[in-house]
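ugh ok fine here u go
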Amino acid sequence: MPATNLTMSATQFEKLRKVVYDRSGIHFQDSKKYVLESRLSRRLEELEFDDFDQYIMFLTAGPYQTDEFQEMFNRITINETSFFRNEPQLDVFERQVLPGILEARKSSKTLRIWSAACSSGEEPYTLAIQVHRSLGVRLQDWKIEILGTDISEKVLMTAQSGKYPHYAIRSVNEMVLSRYFKQDGSMYQLDPTIQSMVHFEKLNLKDRLAAKRFGSWDVIFCRNVMIYFDDEMKNHCATLYHEQLQDDGALFIGHSETLRNLSASFEALPYPQGFAYKKG
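structure:
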């Protein structure tokens, strides 16, 4: 019979957070030990393990280690997102940055946007709505590629369904809601046209080679992700974005994040509340 009120020793915490970091780049600080302990205790009970040593062995040496890492990752991360999250920043994208990029791409009529660590898809779909209403009838003449990537297969399945609860659309105004969503019971189904503009792929940001296979981007969104990384991983991501961003492209990060003191060179774009950067 598995033990209840499972506790995690300092040694077990060190082993577990190393597994998380090695596979995802997410760093749990010492003060977050309780987070891993509380969110995984229930999982140990489900697996009928007596302690975290058994779980760590299962996670690192068992035949189901890949599947279990996905299960664990879904439990220890909070995928907090919604449509039109941080609308002032998105206004900068739609009204200031996007028109200039569309003008620069008017001969090729190709636009490529990457939403990194996109969780359940609200961000890339929001960007698709903004592109859709910016281009209007011209959309049919353009090749639009919007990619949403995340390490979690579970959230990507939600993204691909295009179906969301009311909480996810709480920031959407009535005009956008009626134009781009259809209520289905307690859920809201996204318009198929918007769904078709976005493609989703599983991607670990630690895997630079895998990211490079997707080519270069006109716009990269990576918001509220680097706050979970240590300095080494922040530098890794900044370098990756610098390499994959077009010379006249734009990078958007979260309002509580910074690119200062990182190895890759970026310059802030002159838009208040934009948190937008170009290559330095």
